[in-house]
Amino acid sequence: MKKSIYLALSGLLMLTSCDMDINEDPNEPSASSVTIDLVFPSAENFIADCLGDQMFNYSGFFAQYWDQMPTANQYNDLAELNINESKDLFNWCYTYLYAGALEDLETIMNKTDNTATIFACKVLRAYTFQLLVDNMSDAPYSEALKGTALLNPKWDDGQTIYEGVLAELDEAEANLDSKAVMNVTDPLLSKNMDQWKGFANALRLRMLLRLIDANINAADNTAKVQKLVADNNFFTNDVAWDVYDNADGQYNPWYDAYRSLGTKNHCAAYPLVEYLKLTNDPRISYVIKPRSYDNTYVGQIPGAKTVEAGWLGLSTAQYQDTYVSNIDYSVMAAAPIYLFTQAELQLLIAEAELRFNNDDAAAKAAYEAAVSYDFKSRGISGAETFLAGVRTGWDNMSDNTAKLNLVYMQKWVALFMRDHMEAWSEARRTDIPALSSASGKDIISSPNIYNAGDFIEPAINYSEGSLAERVPYPSTARTLNPNTPTAKTLADKVFWDVK
What we know:
This protein has a two-stranded antiparallel ribbon with strand order 1-5. Strands 2-3 form a two-stranded antiparallel ribbon. Helix 5 packs antiparallel against helix 6. 49% of the residues lie in helices and 3% in strands. The relative contact order is 0.15. By secondary structure, the protein is mainly α.
């Protein structure tokens, strides 16, 4: 019942708390009678809805978790990276994040002096701008959300935004009254300030690692990471928007959107399936279905739905949906939307312990805690056996490089069906999974040349590069704001991706 109430409340507020005009004055929202107590869950819902629906879908293609089902055509452009500004891939999220989440948060902060509520707003604001930067690199920031006073805000570079919101977080926490209690409804973390501080620290850790790898104030930022890990003040469990039920009108938004299409659109991608098989990972059964006629798991080469049958010497009819493993949508019917998982957090800690503290024991403990947590969260047994595996056991790795690569690969696995946006971002930051030098056609002909888990350039690829490195600017911004930068392609990297 509680979930239904929260879902109805947040859905109502998405319609009333802002009119979807990104230039609307946040001090004069369209539903002035709505109190800040009710606006806060609306902001949370806007963020979760973007992350768990549209971003979840396209990042699933970019992270090579899934591909377009052979007999469907809904996402051919995503599978084949046929995306430019005219495709409007990011329009919906851009509007929801600015005119929805950020405007709601601005309204709240302008109407309260409650330091606990302001701090939580700043955490969500930092999270939202992180999403914007990780998608587009640049975004309106310093001049954004000024309403009619500034209708055409400038676009700031990603480094400015990252450093800006991190400074905002520090300031809000410094001003935090230890006795303050949030004065808004909070379905995400139930007004638990320890959890909000832990969420903020995890967000800092995530963003600082990107700044370090971009060689931006690396020494200072490394010291900050070391302090975060030493203090160990992070959230427990997951930070998840858990308001959905398996019932009409209450479904998880990604599940509801693709259920309503009435067509199976997703099949498992070859890189994920091959890596899960190589490592004897029982999580392969979580949402991936074995082929019905031989009970084996087979992934599709990315971007290959129209050509793979020919490579295999099959007719189109022989190939179809039965040849590749389907994705089981039903698992997602009431699934929460994950803003930050405990598994990701522990794997970030493992990386920091290994890279910056040279503490093998602490890194191992965090790695094993992450994998164990992810197994448990999916209701799958066998974590202990998995962690002793030849290819997945910490002590079986030959050196620190192999251990770090294991951390990165297991993060990719653990974020599957959890946070695809973060999986795509981390793959770009770390270059793990690596990009295979072999083509999809060569891999089908000679599977032994393929290193299981490596990304594969889409067989049909309209992008200028091998993989998606960013999303184009939204055409909405191009139309409404003359300060929108020159158009970018999928091949243009975000600011922190310097490798």
